[in-house]
Amino acid sequence: MAEYFKNVPEIKYEGPKSENPYAYKYYDKDRVVGGKTMGEQLKFAMAWWHTLCANGTDMFGVGTADKTFGTDDPMELAKAKVYAGFEFMHKLGIDYFCFHDRDIAPEGATIEESNANLDVIADLIVEQQKKYGIKCLWGTANLFGNPRYMHGAGTAPNADAFVYAAAQVKKAMDLTVKFGGKGYVFWGGREGYETLLNTDMGLEQDNIARLMKMAIAYGDKIGFDGDFYIEPKPKEPTKHQYDFDSATTIAFLTKYGLQDRFRLNIEANHATLAGHTFQHELRVARVNGFFGSIDANQGDTLLGWDTDQFPTDIYNATYCMYEVLKQGGFTNGGLNFDSKQRRGSFTLEDTALAHIAGMDTFALGLLAAQKIIDDGRIDKFVEDRYASWTTGIGKSIIDGKEDFESLAAYAAKMGEVTTNTSGRQEMLELIVNQVIMNTLNE
Length: 442
Ligand code: XLS
Ligand code: NI
Ligand code: NI
What we know:
The protein is an alpha/beta fold. The chain contains 16 helices and 14 strands. The strands form 4 sheets. The chain has an 8-stranded parallel barrel with strand order 5-6-7-8-10-12-13-14, surrounded by 4 helices. It has a two-stranded parallel ribbon with strand order 1-2.
């Protein structure tokens, strides 16, 4: 069988001193961290669309990378991508993949034709899954690329576009189940608006909730027992997307009674675009019970769009993995590399090196996050900072024993607040630095 990533060897762990670019320095798959292996804690997934399809095309130019895998026939190319993708995941030790329907097979002239194409490729994917023991993390439908969705899909003003979207989601869910996927993602590609002058916001949101309810009902019929996810993003491609950020999305899910089956798929770069830190988005999801899965990438804070860069920022990876560990780890979710190398890094070797860099960054983040937890100083500081809520008047408020009258009387007796203590932000940041440095020097 053809080998596609010819210059990419099987990537092994060689430790922090290795200077071999084709080796992991921190990702030691079987090493136990926080009670699970690194492989189980991190659950890396390859994104079919970036890794196998994206060729570096941008708004100003055609592709720079050759992702034709030796053929220009659409179905042959789709098959070649399956072989190339599994070869790639196997070589890197990546156990999961994520896909859109249109990533894996070309769209036909009719829904039937598109679905028939999908069926052919899906059988091949299942065959390769068995061969390599690779799983599907989540599936989704591309409801944004085709012109029929120019005004949205689940939020389209035109009911026919909604109908087409429903048919696509149905099939994408079938495939997700066929691949054993435990997640189905709704990313609201064009589910937003450009101007309120032509938009019925209330109806649009009611309708996308209807689409999601139908997905839950259909999932129950076909035995989908995983999580549905919404992937918040504030803008791009639409000016204003409805799933702006974690908080907005949680409010939406709660309003429409979708909170039992839906979780969030948090993407680092989308957090940046929303004006939040990655950790903020994860924390909002976690404390509200909506933590689900992660699209692991990073943005560029000097740019206003979704650059989907491979993650190399140790702080962000550390703070992210801190949230994951505090959550007790992933259940159905994982870390999907919704990431692509820069347009100028156009070779297949770059695709591998980019993944290696991302995986090592998150492995280091996991090690550092576990160390922060073991070290205990940060958690202890936070606990102490809120100690006034565990005794006296604070406890009494939490126990529901107080009201405005009793608190006003208490305040009158108490006088001015004299119990504030320093937030010690700089000291805490230094502790994080120290722990990361110790992790690096281990
Ligand atoms: C785009 C999104 C997309 C989703 C899947 O910004 O990140 O790639 O992850 O549709
Ligand atoms: Ni994403
Ligand atoms: Ni994105």
